[in-house]
């Protein structure tokens, strides 16, 4: 971006700053135009008037190609803490990424609360298997390597090698998303490329285990009728370190629709398949569920429904719940600011109070005994 006194005629002018700072509908119009122009193939430059000048945003740069991505990851990285920080003591977070491998960039999930679609793009660009295997071989030769590759993934682990040919040629569709509300048949979801990749890495001398620590889109696994079950079974058998991460975020249809997340039926089916393979291979492994409280449109009653679902169907109580945090460049933040569903213009409830947010989060952890006495002036526990 840059400031200019001149108006570029070939750029799209969005509502002026003086308009959007007071008019929420103009703000929503501005955001939609911005979001619609984030694909490198179809995007146009944007400009917005600020007083007597214009703020100019150039179109996004083209996505990296596979050879370009390979070249970046083929560089001779140290895989160590910088000496300046190393002298200050141990950095424990380094251990989770030191021997992990990035297999691709981008995510076409387009969850409404996530900014990945903007800063990495909705086109998945995968590294070649040769580049990834070369990196794994280099890792296996490091002195302190114990045999465990902690992750092979990206924003979403199982998007590796899966992309729409039409999108690669013409850019992102204007009138639909790749996997919401249903997976587009043109995406042609097949997990074979990642299956073959994991098998090749596992066969490298010195590699004992290859884990998947990045989150999964379980709806894509269910959609893949050719390789989905085979992929999941191999994950359970060989590539789960104890817990597998998935992100249903919520279960009520009203809230998941505002989030841009898949329906709860896919979660039920995936959990059944995961548990079945655990039993078959005599594993004691678990699913880790990411959940969000106080997302725009979510009310206390929705959180109570979520609590009932996780206890009765998932048979667990989440250890932590993320309270929705507005983040730049997302539709959910637009909802939070405007109080409207941007896709149909209807007003929605938005919890902005700290007390209300805390109630939505805490209701998940309430025991049946606490809930029984709530509102009667009776406290349980110390």
Describe the structure.
- The structure is a single chain.
- By secondary structure, this protein is an alpha/beta fold.
- The protein folds into three domains: 1-62, no CATH class; 63-241, Transcription Regulator spoIIAA (2-Layer Sandwich), CATH 3.30.750; 245-382, Transcription Regulator spoIIAA (2-Layer Sandwich).
- Helices cover 38% and strands 12% of the residues.
- It is built from 17 helices and 13 strands.
- The strands form five sheets. Strands 1-4-3-2 form a four-stranded mixed β-sheet, covered by helices on one side.
- A hairpin with a 2-residue loop joins β3 (46-50) and β4 (53-57).
- α2 (24-36) packs antiparallel against α15.
- The protein is globular.
- It starts with a strand and ends in a 9-residue tail after the last helix.
- The model is unreliable at 372-382 (pLDDT under 50).
Q: What is the CATH top level name of the largest domain?
A: Alpha Beta
Assembly type of the shown chains?
single chain
Which segments are poorly predicted (pLDDT under 50) over 5 or more consecutive residues? 372-382
Domain count: 3
**Would you identify the CATH architecture of the largest domain?**
2-Layer Sandwich
The shape is: globular
Q: H/E order of the elements?
A: EEHHEEHHHEEHEHEEHHEHHEHHEHEHHH
User: For the residues shown, what is the average pLDDT?
Assistant: 94
> Roughly how many Å apart are the termini?
56 Å
Q: Helix proportion of residues, in percent?
A: 25-40%
Approximately how much beta-strand content do the residues carry? 5-15%
């Amino acid at each position: 971006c840059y400031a200019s006194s001149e108006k570029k005629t070939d750029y799209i002018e969005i509502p002026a700053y003086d308009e959007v700072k007071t008019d929420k509908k103009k703000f929503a119009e501005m955001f939609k135009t911005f979001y619609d122009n984030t694909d490198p193939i179809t995007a146009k430059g944007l400009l917005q008037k600020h007083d007597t000048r214009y703020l100019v945003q150039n179109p996004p740069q083209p996505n990296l190609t596979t050879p370009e991505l390979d070249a970046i990851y083929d560089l001779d990285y140290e895989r160590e803490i910088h000496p300046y920080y190393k002298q200050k003591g141990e950095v424990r977070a380094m251990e989770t990424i030191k021997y992990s491998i990035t297999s691709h960039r981008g995510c076409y999930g387009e969850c409404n609360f996530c900014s990945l679609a903007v800063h990495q793009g909705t086109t998945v660009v995968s590294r070649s298997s040769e580049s990834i295997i070369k990196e794994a071989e280099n890792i296996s030769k490091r002195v302190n390597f114990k045999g465990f590759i902690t992750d092979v993934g990206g924003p979403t682990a199982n998007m590796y090698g899966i992309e729409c040919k039409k999108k690669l040629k013409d850019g992102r569709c204007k009138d639909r998303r790749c996997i919401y509300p249903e997976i587009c048949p043109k995406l042609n979801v097949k997990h074979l490329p990642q299956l073959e990749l994991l098998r090749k890495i596992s066969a490298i001398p010195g590699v004992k285990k290859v884990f998947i620590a990045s989150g999964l889109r379980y709806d894509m696994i269910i959609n893949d009728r050719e390789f989905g079950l085979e992929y999941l079974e191999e994950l359970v058998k060989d590539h789960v370190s104890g817990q597998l991460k998935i992100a249903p975020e919520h279960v009520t249809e009203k809230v998941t629709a505002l989030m841009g997340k898949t329906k709860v039926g896919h979660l039920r089916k995936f959990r059944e398949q995961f548990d079945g393979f655990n039993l078959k291979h005599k594993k004691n492994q678990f699913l880790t569920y990411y959940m969000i409280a106080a997302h725009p449109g979510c009310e206390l009653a929705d959180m109570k429904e979520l609590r009932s679902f996780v206890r009765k169907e998932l048979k667990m109580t989440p250890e932590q719940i993320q309270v929705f945090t507005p983040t730049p460049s997302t539709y959910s933040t637009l909802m939070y600011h405007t109080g409207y569903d941007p896709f149909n213009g209807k007003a929605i409830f938005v919890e902005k109070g700290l007390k209300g947010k805390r109630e939505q989060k805490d209701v998940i952890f309430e025991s049946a005994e606490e809930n029984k006495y709530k509102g009667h002036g009776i406290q349980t526990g110390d």
